[in-house]
Amino acid sequence: MEEKQFGNLTWICVNLDENLDNQQLKTDLAIDEKIIAYASDVDELAHIDYHAKLERLVLVYDAIHDEKDDNIYATTPVTFILKENRVIILHTNDNAYLIEQFIALFESESIDSVYDFICAALVCISKNYFHVLERLNKELKEIREKLRKKTTKNRLLTLSDIEMAMIGIKSSSKQNYLVLEQLEDSSLNCPFFAGDSEKLSAAKIEARQILEMSELTAQTMAQLSETYNNVLNNQLNDTMKILTGLSILLATPDIITGFFGINVPLPDILTGNSWSWLLIIGLIVLFALLMGRILFWVFRQKT
């Protein structure tokens, strides 16, 4: 737990991945187990909760990881507990990088209230989304160019990882935008959460741009995935046709030689001369060359 003082604003950071005494958090910071539970839940949706009696505003906002986790950029919630002149931030190791960025806000911007800080902090979180989206778009462009040259399993898995990341980003950005709309709603009636409306509007604009950008990239991903799915299905159908034709060609000698047996003797030309075995080998080689020529023509037509 880390505490700092910026003017008349007290700023407390709590890393939930550290060994903490929940009873101490409850006693010293008035953080109950319910807040700790959903602050620790990586699947918790962004939302706000204002407790009028305690004059406390709890804001849960999805922040994106600055590094990949299992080849995917994931999101986890960061929780702000706001009271007049005090901000408590509950975070994890995955989004701990935000703390340094928040400290820089106090040093570079004029922050005189909880309202000023939270508006600046939400804009800061949004900018990290932009950086990740730019990386993903760059990766998408690179993998698309590689897939055009050659379709491989690893490249398709990379495409799938990008698509999974975009699904999470799109969901988080949508929920974050809804939270900002709730904050902008005058019915919140939070006495200490008031200030220049342009600051909150700026945070909302950033969140809206992220949502639109993620939706556009997700649509591109869906179209690209559908295209390669159709390509792979067509390749599979072509392969099955070739294998069917090959099976018929391979069955032809069996059909022909199947006529000969106990009741139908082999032709004299294959049994009556010492060089008959050479004739048989020659027929086999000729048949193999014929099949090779047919398969070569088929593959050439497909490519």
From TrEMBL:
Coiled coil region boundaries: 126-153
Subcellular location: Membrane
Classification via InterPro entries: CorA-like (IPR047199), CorA_cytoplasmic_dom (IPR045861), CorA_TM1_TM2 (IPR045863), MgTranspt_CorA/ZnTranspt_ZntB (IPR002523)
CC per GO annotation: membrane
Keyword Transmembrane: yes
GO molecular function, one term: metal ion transmembrane transporter activity
Segments crossing the lipid bilayer: 242-262, 274-299
Keyword terms: Coiled coil, Membrane, Transmembrane, Transmembrane helix
Membrane topology: Multi-pass membrane protein
Membership in a protein family: Belongs to the CorA metal ion transporter (MIT) (TC 1.A.35) family.
Protein name: Magnesium transporter CorA family protein
